[in-house]
Amino acid sequence: MRPAGSRTGSLALPALRPRTAPGGTVRVTPPRLRLVLLDFDGVLARYDQRVRLASLARAAACTPAHVSEVLLDSGLDRAYDSGALDTAKYLQHLSAGLGTAVDAATWIEARVAATQADPAVLALVALLASRVEVGVLTNNGPLLLEALPRIVAPLFPMLDGRVLCSGILGVRKPDRAIFERALAHFDVHAQETLFVDDLFVNVQGARAAGLHADTVVHARSLRTVLRRYGLMRAGPVTPD
To answer: Which of 55, 105, 118, 189 fits a 20 to 30 Å CA distance from 67?
Structure first.
């Protein structure tokens, strides 16, 4: 469901504004942020494509390899994630390719089975949402929106209306246009927004669009980035 990419560059730090305090001590002043925009697969949750293919294969009484051919090799998933197909046409093509009817419920069950939320990350995001606006920007089609409340249940209803899919926006990360459309949706400026993703290519796309952005691959790295931007204090993940 997501583009291949490299995590190379995950240690690259964003440019924060240095400030000289009395006595000559140089301090870094974090920007004033209004929004933290998070990737889904690879940040909020771990996605196992093999599990999804196996689940759909059982439903269609075929092999996972055949499902992969229909969904991935043909470009069907990418077309759906890019907004080139609506959900009805996507499921129609999927059903035709597998030779059996695949409805939204079957697709959602397979996606939920293949995606495991990271509880430590969810706890950080829940705390973060009490301090700044939070949203999700993901390279996925609209059907994911129906699966999300089951995958990251602790973040709902907080995330209602705050999850943006590439399939709805009509463009995928790392294209700068997707970030511009996300900013317009949330009515914030690029310099007021921090974006985090597990793929550095997407971080580069966000930076090219003027956002603050950094790579995050687990709860520890997320906490490090949030602390750097003054959004999280040191210590356990508890309200403070």
So the answer is: 118
